[in-house]
Amino acid sequence: MTDTRDALTIARTSDGRLVRRPLSPHLQVYRPQITSILSIMHRMTGIALSAGTLLLAWWLVAAATSDSSYATVSGFMRSPIGLLFLLGWIASLWYHFCNGIRHLAWDAGFGFELPTVHASGWAVVAATAALTALTAIAVVMAL
Hints:
By secondary structure, this protein is mainly alpha-helical. 75% of the residues lie in helices and 4% in strands. Strands 1-2 form a two-stranded antiparallel sheet. A hairpin with a 5-residue loop joins strand 1 and strand 2 (18-20). The chain is elongated. The model has no long low-confidence stretch (mean pLDDT 90).
């Protein structure tokens, strides 16, 4: 074999036959599971929270600077794109919070059985949806 990649894809089965195997799973072979999706979402919501924190900092600096600066930020936050951004930030905050509690339980040694992992994953999704909806309702009622 002249190619390293070719050498890595050759393997032997338990009965000694040579077979070609994929170098790593790819999207046509790998089926996403709730655990992998929730892990990816945890990372993505962490990034979204960072972006939302920048918006919060912009709002605070504008409030401390001048009325016109505050009006600019407030106008953006009340626009449809700004409201969608805030809703996403709230959902990210609740997801990261709920999944963080799940990770604390894991750190304490609880919930590693596969049925419990799946149940707690779906509980995080449900709690995120419910808490996001309750927060949005509370904000709308306060306006």
